[in-house]
């Protein structure tokens, strides 16, 4: 229930940010053409992309609330990650276009209306900063972080544009400062966008979460006196907040075991203990454990000798298409 209220509150904040950004886009575009400022026009374009990004974040937030189904067994847990990746890519595209236009304007001659640039850019900076603060959360997911990056980046660009407009106004020249500042800000925002893109891509590629050390996870599992060996250990992210793992455990040193074969109840007791430990120490909440009573020593590309056993039984080896 608390999570539902939090999502509803976040949706309201995102809608507010989207509406404010759209109003800023219109104002900056009109003022940019009137003042001849590439900084304002670039910022308007950036704001327009941010508005689309915030709307995308809203859609992803709504889809993420969908429950698991037969077709999507984890529900909509990855929609926010997809939105974050799309938003990060959009940031990089817009900053690239901004850099190209700034470089073109550096070699061109034109005048900039300093007072108009200062006034409009300062208003945009205040609105974007307020929107970023409204959307920001202490423990935000990738989707929310992407939206905040959009808004905070726009606030930074607007402040820089206002500063350059002020210098142009006071000095009565230095029109080259307007595109130069836009170029520098574009580089800074691109760096943050690239970091976000890498983080989202790691989740979608099912890479090991950056916060986890697989060797440490394996060592903690082996600390259980009933676990003799750990192999075929995989840890990945379903989203930036939901971790999953699968592992094969060789069990031993169990009371009342005959011929080295533990009972189903004993294997389950050990597995439940391992699952609880992984959830508490590493926040891995989706864990699949296969308990074994005999050593499993397959080649590195044949987990637990599945292909070897099929070949010994005379069964054809299944291709990737066959498995699907």
TrEMBL record:
Location of the protein in the cell: Membrane
Pfam annotation, one family: ZT_dimer
Coiled coil regions in record: none
InterPro entries: Cation_efflux (IPR002524), Cation_efflux_CTD (IPR027470), Cation_efflux_CTD_sf (IPR036837), Cation_efflux_TM (IPR058533), Cation_efflux_TMD_sf (IPR027469), CDF/SLC30A (IPR050681)
Keyword annotations from UniProtKB, A to Z: Ion transport, Membrane, Transmembrane, Transmembrane helix, Transport
Residue ranges annotated for the Cation efflux protein transmembrane domain, each copy included: 14-205
Bilayer topology term: Multi-pass membrane protein
Gene Ontology molecular function terms on file: zinc ion transmembrane transporter activity
Cation efflux protein cytoplasmic domain ranges (all copies): 209-291
Transmembrane parts of this sequence: 44-64, 76-100, 112-135, 147-174, 180-198
GO cellular component terms, A-Z: plasma membrane
PANTHER family named in the record: CATION EFFLUX PROTEIN/ ZINC TRANSPORTER (PTHR11562), RE54080P-RELATED (PTHR11562:SF17)
Family: Belongs to the cation diffusion facilitator (CDF) transporter (TC 2.A.4) family. SLC30A subfamily.
The name this protein goes by in its record: Cobalt-zinc-cadmium resistance protein
